[in-house]
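Human: Here is a favour to ask of a fellow structure person. Comparing notes only helps if you start from a blank page. Give me a protein, with the fold worked out from its sequence. Please set it down just below, with no commentary around it:

Assistant:
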Amino acid sequence: MRGVTHDDAPLLADLMPWSVAPPRLGRGWPAAPDAASLKARWDALVKAEGPDRETLFEPSRSRTLHTAVGQLPGRADSGTEKLVRASGPCPEPVRVLLAPFDEQWLIPDQRLIDAARPELWRVADERQAFLVEAPEALLVTSLLPLLRPGRVRPLFRRPGGREPNLAPGLLEHLGARLGGTPAPLDVLAWITATARPDLTVPLTGDADEWERGIELGHRMLWLMRRDGERPKLPGGRRPYVRAPLPSRPLTLRYDRDEEALLLDEGRVSPVPPEAWDFEVGGVRVLEQWFTARVTDAEPGTLAAIRPTVWPQTWTSELLELITVLALLAELRPLEELTLPDPITTAELAEAGVLPVPATARRPASVLDGPEEGPEGQLALL
């Protein structure tokens, strides 16, 4: 058995060569933990006139009320007239990943977003999985990710699960070494389970070790993507609301002895210490999630339009998040792995898999239907 070192393990950037910078909102109010607030914010914007509308919008160098941009791909309900003249209902909010493990809502309108990254929207569908280089961690989500500053690597370059975003020839080479060609999602599972902090990914030609790795990776993917059946803690240790949450909690504390999460006088337990201690980039996920829902915005801004009481849906999301974090904490991969029969960068180069062609690092030409450009013009791509 020979260990894979950081020098001979391939780079994630070579295994999944196409990457995109995450969307940049430029203003906070088009995103929120609840969809109803977004619709109310939009209504307040389009009802305002003149300087009031401009102040509410919070213009930037990239977006003003007079900026002309097209529709986001796949979002026919968003307008293309300049916002200075905009009226009508709010485009239907969509679910996004705004922070690590924090699913929120976004108004999908390119006029509101400084850098929307249309190339990501073109490939976002029910088959897609986005690998996100979060600080000191890799996250995977089925939702459009808005986390900054890391790169976003879609698993597929085209909608419908077509054309994997993998080094050309990688699947075939792995198949020859493992005795069976893995599916693209298997490779993503392996990467999720084994990627190191320096974003190298040790590979193995040992079929048994590969199966163990992708089993761990698929479990991690299921928890992070939250697809299908809801996760549960073993032994019936399901977190419950033991004391009612206040209508508007302001503080969050953790009682380690009692394994209880305290939202003012509200109480949720059991909350395993692993869930409370779960961090991404040195920030506790539960604290960041809570803060995003209780921190007051500046009065008079659109962001100040928010629920006046704590919605029941947030409690349900909190209970599920506790479960996900506790289960993921048990699955966190080792930073150092010793793998039998390593597949090295040199081997991939000899097989012609590396270096990847420049075209693999650029987005595919994707236009499954017409896209409306600024002021209703047809966009030609």
